[in-house]
Amino acid sequence: MQLFKKFTFDAAHFLPQVPEGHKCREIHGHTYLLTVFVEGDPDPLLGWVLDFADLKQAVEPVIKEVDHKFLNQLPGLENPTCELIAVWLWNRIKPLVPQLSKIELYETPTSGVVYAG
């Protein structure tokens, strides 16, 4: 079974590797939507895979690292594409949430990435 929890954060960035004149080469911001998926069997006694409160407690410190930040200034996010941000988030969340199975990161309501490690 998979359960999920959604988180949002606001951040600014630019993409330094795109060609001159590309709109994403300019500093701009997004309200990102992160969905964290956890997979496992429900506990026979409790009836859940993981307490949503425990998942929130594990993920929120990672969200604070990027919320209202200029992503290009964070180590490892010098070229903060949606894909590379997803990998960066995964690498921080997975040690805290071993049952993590995938994440979805939307940088706009219609554009995003799915990453499963």
First-last Cα distance: 18 Å
Query: What order do the helices and strands follow?
Result: EEHEHEE
Kindly estimate the percentage of residues that lie in beta strands according to DSSP. Answer: 25-35%
- Mean pLDDT across residues: 97
The largest sheet is:
5 strands, mixed
Keywords:
117 residues, alpha+beta, 5-stranded mixed sheet, 2 helices, 5 strands, elongated
Protein model, in words:
The protein has 117 residues and is α+β, with helices and mostly antiparallel strands. The protein is built from two helices and five strands. It has helices at 52-66, 82-93; strands at 2-13, 28-39, 69-70, 100-108, 111-115. The chain has a five-stranded mixed β-sheet. A hairpin with a 2-residue loop joins strand 4 and strand 5 (111-115). It is elongated and about 60 Å long. The mean pLDDT is 97.
In short:
The protein is an alpha+beta fold and 117 residues long. 23% of the residues lie in helices and 34% in strands.
Topology:
Layout: E1 2-13, E2 28-39, H1 52-66, E3 69-70, H2 82-93, E4 100-108, E5 111-115
Parallel strand pairs: 1-3
Antiparallel strand pairs: 1-2, 2-4, 4-5
